[in-house]
Write a structure and sequence with these properties.
Number of helices: 12
Mean pLDDT: 80
Oligomer: single chain
Distance between the termini: 32 Å
Number of strands: 0
Radius of gyration: 16 Å
Shape: globular
Length: about 220
């Protein structure tokens, strides 16, 4: 259960989104009803409503079907990967610098990463946004808003209920800017830059994102 005392509503929303975007292993599956109850306790808001729509599917989905859906969505479709800096930096060298910056921010905030987990994994970024002091985590997420909008659009294009989770993330962060929308469209049109430097690719599909946004 989530300790909601003294926690802003947006932080609770981001924490729930972090859990919803993790691989649905046995622990997550066992917690589904409790997490759905946490959503029901959120104050009435557009973000709470969109998470309720997600939970209506997620809570009762067959566990094996849920695992398959997650893998097909996030692991096998390059457009829907959860590694945020890939959308802007692809496999170019500057991505290493972006990852190092995130890792240092997490360390300073006392947020450990799981072994082998990259710091731009969206659930980790959401966890940081919830836990970091002085609003630092939300600032970092807003820096990556174009990538989040592009991922949100790709999930809607797939008609997956996980699109509702990205809707909630973006709603929790507040209104997007025209510049972020423009950048997201440019990223969708061009696709991620490539300059292979030993980073593991994320997703097997070579499809490029669609160019139209839905916000």
């Amino acid at each position: 259960m989530i300790n909601r005392s003294h926690r802003p509503r947006a932080a609770t929303t981001l924490k729930l989104c972090s859990l919803f975007l993790q691989y649905p292993d046995a622990e997550i599956v066992a917690a589904r009803k409790d997490l759905s109850a946490e959503v029901a306790r959120l104050s009435r808001s557009p973000a709470a409503a969109t998470l309720a729509r997600f939970c209506a599917w997620w809570t009762d989905e067959d566990p094996l079907a849920l695992e398959q859906h997650y893998v097909e969505t996030f692991d096998l479709d390059r457009r829907c990967g959860l590694y945020v800096t890939f959308y802007t930096d692809g496999d170019k060298r500057q991505r290493g610098a972006a990852l190092l910056r995130l890792k240092r921010l997490y360390r300073a905030a006392g947020l450990p990463l799981a072994d082998g987990e990259l710091p731009d994994f969206l659930p980790a970024m959401l966890e940081f946004a919830m836990a970091a002091p002085d609003g630092q985590g939300a600032i970092v997420l807003r820096e990556h808003r174009p990538a989040l909008e592009l991922l949100r659009t790709s999930l809607h294009d797939r008609s997956t209920p996980y699109a509702h989770v990205l809707d909630a993330v973006c709603l929790a962060l507040g209104k997007t800017t025209g510049a972020a929308r423009t950048t997201a469209r440019q990223l969708a049109a061009a696709g991620p830059p490539f300059e292979l430097v030993g980073l593991q690719p994320f997703g097997a599909s070579s499809e490029t994102p669609t160019t139209e946004a839905t916000w």
